[in-house]
Amino acid sequence: MGQLSNPRRGAERRLYTQLRAQIEDGTLAPDAKLPSTRALAETLGVSRTTVTAAYEQLAAEGFVVTAVGKAARVATPAVALPVVATVPRDNPPPALSRYGQRVAALKPYHMVSPTARIDFRYGAVASRDFPALGWNRAYRAELIKRQPTRPNGQPEGEAALRQALQGYLRRARGLTCDTEQLLVVHGSQQGLDLCARLLLNPDDAFIFEDPGYRMARYCFEATGATALPIPVDASGLQTQRLPDDPRARLAYVTPSHQFPMGAVLSIARRVELLNWASRHRAWIIEDDYGGEFRYGQRPIDALQSMDAEARVIYVGTFSKALSPQLRLGYLVLPRELVGVFREAKRLTDRNETRWEQNVLASLIDSGAYERHLRRLRRDNEGRRKALLDAVDHHLPGLGKLEGMAAGLHGVLLLPHLHERDEDALQAMALERGIGVYPLSPLFTTQGERPASLILGYAGLTVQQIDEGIRILAQVIREVMAAAHPPLIPQS
Ligand SMILES: Cc1ncc(COP(=O)(O)O)c(C=O)c1O
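Above: inputs. Below: predicted complex with pyridoxal-5'-phosphate.
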């Protein structure tokens, strides 16, 4: 949004391109020290934020190595660059498919701050929260079992895990299904990709929460389908705005904790959404990415449990409760979709994580998984409280947290700043070792909105949370002092 016309972005791009070219042609040799951000900013007459952002980009791509308190250096060995053959003009290379061209055109998804000492990255979980002892024990037991001679897993996943999940989903999410309807996938992302490829055509449209989960939107847009963004409020997706558009073939929703704003979709709206899907013969994808984490009250049952017409595809993941590195997720499919999803899954990867799937099944069956979840909920409740307290303490009257009733992140609304200030906030916070993430890239529509930052807390200690917000508060005050007229007048 407006990025091309943003002069800082232009300067950042130019600097990045120049430095990269110098690294590639050897002018800047491997291990060469780069000037400090301050010195280079002064020499070039640009802001330090611009230089830092260019360095960060080079570091993210492996051209440069940065570390807090140390000078940035050219990576050693220098990044191996693909050899580009000279292409004769009369013999251009084979073209990408239209799908490939759409994927190539997607805006890159950068969600890491490699130099952040305290990183509020959402989606991260603390590795110390992983139940390593129980997992190791179960893994050893699995390894010494005599494996059946079947060389490949079945596309639907291990029977033991599907059986264990069936019971877990009934107990925890009020969701009833046959084991047949369960398809184990490599994280919900693979499940979303299968949905996109099997359910959407290029002329179709899909309902998408605004703001919403960008990695889902990218999957759907890559098919050539068009997003129909629907705003969300404190009760979730504004279902009264669902369009009567004959192109709409599916709706992607996060009803248990709207991503990223955190609302729980009200019962009345759940009914309205199901009725809309029925009228339009559309599928609903229910992404339950954080359904286990609701504080104070029992988690609300899954939308799928209200679905009388088998329209809902439920997407679950173990990325929050165990680790995103496991890449273990699952779909609960309407019966008529089971066959085609299994075959598409077979084409993709045949489903080979058999050991991990069986280990997880044994943890669920023994009750260890649900004990772990209860412990994790308590720990995350402590982190959540630390974040609420820190914002109260360090940002009185300047920032407001939204969407904290469930999940593992909140949205910090900064009514005195404009969303165009989000990049500066992010870059200045990173200079002080704090990773924060702007909300605006998650909107499909453009608008005049106050600045907001997404703050994930599940990977941090309560001390880090307090310190991170204390430093962020200084940054916010500095950006405010650099004076923008308030978007929403102070009351
Ligand atoms: C809305 C949403 N869905 C799903 C996921 C999880 O993806 P995966 O299961 O592929 O790790 C995330 C991760 O952050 C998310 O934010």
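Residues 1-5 have pLDDT under 50 and may be disordered.
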